[in-house]
Design goal:
Length: 161
């Protein structure tokens, strides 16, 4: 059984994309977390409880991470804590470490802005989605016509219904 964890921190380097022997995309990256504390004697801020988290993500998420995120970006990640075990090839000793299998991640909008685009997995791009939505909606629906309640010269405070 693994524990769920939410990390808020910065990427220490650009995520690396690799592919497993069976062709599955794997993103490997490290998130550093810490908390800021103020020394009351000097009135200066410093980092405390700094922890480096080795993270991995798989499949489409891995590809999206490597395409979207970069070194130094503050991110929020949700995942599961897992223990990885292996045998050291040089010494033959068994080794293990805790890492995070990331289920979801995104930039922190506290320190950055982001433009979200739907990835290619669903078959609908943003423009295709908008066209499909307009075809399904009644012709007088102000939310799909692009007007959004707009009157000549500006936005109306009137509800569209």
């Amino acid at each position: 059984m693994s524990s769920t964890i939410t990390l808020t921190g910065r990427l220490t380097a650009a995520p690396e994309l690799r592919f497993s022997g069976s062709g599955v995309a794997v993103a490997a990256f490290t998130i550093v977390t810490s908390r800021r504390v103020k020394d009351p004697a000097t009135n200066e801020w410093s980092d405390a409880d700094t922890t480096y988290w080795d993270c991995k993500a798989f499949k489409q998420l891995a590809e999206n991470i490597c395409e979207s995120l970069d070194k130094g970006l503050e991110v929020i990640a949700v995942g599961r804590v897992v223990q990885e075990s292996w045998e050291d090839k040089q010494s033959g000793q068994k080794r293990s470490k805790m890492s995070v299998r990331v289920d979801g991640i995104g930039p922190s909008l506290r320190t950055a802005t982001a433009r979200v685009e739907k990835s290619g997995g669903s078959g609908h791009g943003r423009q295709d989605f908008q066209q499909a939505r307009q075809q399904q909606a009644p012709a007088d629906d102000p939310w799909t016509s692009g007007g959004g309640g707009q009157s000549s010269g500006g936005w109306s405070d009137e509800a569209p219904f």
